[in-house]
Specification:
Distance between the termini: 33 Å
CATH architecture of one domain: Alpha-Beta Barrel
Structural class: alpha/beta
Number of helices: 22
CATH superfamily of one domain: Alanine racemase
Radius of gyration: 30 Å
Oligomer: single chain
Amino acid sequence: MDSVEEELSWTVDDALALYHVQGWSDGYFTIDEKGRMIADVERNGRKGIAIADVVEQLREEGVPFPVLIRFQDIIRGRVTQLHEAFAAAIEEFSYGDRYRGVYPIKVNQLHEVVEEILEAGRPYGMGLECGSKAELVAALPHLADDDTLLICNGYKDTVMMEQILTGQQLGKQVIPVLEKYDEFERLLSLASRRKIEPKFGVRIRLNTGGSGKWADSGGDLSKFGISIPELLRILERLEEDELHDSFCLLHFHLGSQVNAIQTLKRGIKEITQIYAQLVKRGVPIRFLDVGGGLGVNYEADFTGGASEGINYTLQEYANSVVLQVKEVCDAEEVAHPTLITESGRALTAHHSVLVVEVLGAYRKDEIPKGFRPTESDHAVVRQMYETLKWVREDRRMRLSALLEAYHDAAGKRQEAESMFSLGILPIEQKARAEQLYWSICHVVNRRVRNSQAEWLPAELEALDEHLVDQYLCDFSVFQSILDHWSFGQRFPIVPIDRLDEQPDRRAVLVDLTCDSDGKVKRYVSAHEDKRFLDVHSLDDEPYLLGFFLMGAYQDIMGDMHNLFGRVAEVHVYADDEEPEGFYVEKMIPATTIEEILALVQYFPKDLQKRMEAIIKRKVDAGELRPSAAVRLLEKYAETFKDSTYFNTTAGRRSGRGESKA
């Protein structure tokens, strides 16, 4: 077997590689020479914000954790990148029209996010997309000028259709995308009552299917879209009513995260062919909307093999859309349409980082440093200590010797268990044998990992799983990373500092909830085994983890499992004139216990009245002094204003550290 070499010195470049930062960050995050995670909001190395500095300022201001940090400059950067990519493609391929981006607010409906995107996209004519009545009501007042697009997807009842027509009567470009034929009839009927000629688009159910986790959003399995026979019925009706000019947009959608560029190209060719034939029939379609699907590289490998990753860049995406449409239009000799994409995930994912504090660790108990057995220790303890000395001191042990050491330790552990069961071995000696066994396993496992051997004996390969720690984190999987719980979406998770130190532990992250599913089960890592995260041993300082690419869907989709509400949120902007290079513009408080209880119909007055009755009975029975009763009721009432998460400021550091199992 191969020899195990000495461990190499650790650098921040090793950390960058271990956590795949350069793959998933798209240049917006890196690690500085001090081992801190940096938000490089302009991707040029000039406006780097240390996340640890933001955290320190928030602690000084009493902001409770966990906290969601929004780097608003990144939103601006993503909007600019998207439009510049299409501008470059239009120029390169001599495309005959323009590009119009619209933001689907379902990805993140938070007002500050929507406003930031609209402001950044104003020079490019950025618009919005909505998919429900509530989103429509929120979006309509944000159409600052008559040129701003508002694309309306989803199933539309009469009330929603009426609001869409109101927008059109106000001269706004509010375009409903028809999903079913009966929506078309409803739209014409309502418009006729108002004596106006409506504008609309049609979503086509293509033969081309999607790819990745949301493949069923396109193709025959899609729940949305009008079939080709239904499209022909619409054209016949338009001819009868002389309403050809109403049909102004053609739309398709392959899914939220298209991971293969070839799938996108096939879909664009198919929709453009339909566009060309409609134009030849005299339908003056102005817009070709290729939907969403511009992906984000959560998995960071660009292979397209994993559904979390994508196999293309932003520029390749823009090039593909522009070129495919141009080639089909030129071949069919029809005018180039105005191009629209509904990119949301790619605009918002990077800007939002959830910072979570580790509250403690559950790990296998090792023998204390400096332990030396004495004559009073049992022979089995002394023998296990000699094995530990052997694996610690012989730095060039071969894998065969490491396997032998493991077998020795396992055998002695079993021997200790048998003697304890027979009453021969005292419980203190059993505890030392357990500690020595896990210490030997940890050293053996570290040497095995450093060997980088192509093949391992089964016992040594299984050590990883046996030795992984559990790090208890102050958050809820169900509230903050719902996509991970529901279908296994991986999110990059990285310590926000200490990255100039080599991680010495492997951990599974578990949350505060009482549910067994409340854990992070899969990680973005350089390791083939994605079931754990490389972390550092805990000390007396807070240990904080950054959950990255959280800005798309996760902010808005969390449920109320265990009644954990929204976390506190801050908005950060880069500013060279500030001492740390940034300022916090806004802080939005976390959901309080009172607020989350109200959502499930529990109210403070009623609850306090019930608690007061319980306490009064105890006072009347002589089991509680009146003064103590008053204090208890006051403490209960104070809790309503507290955050739903673990309060690390009350009795700080109490109970923190590594519990042994």
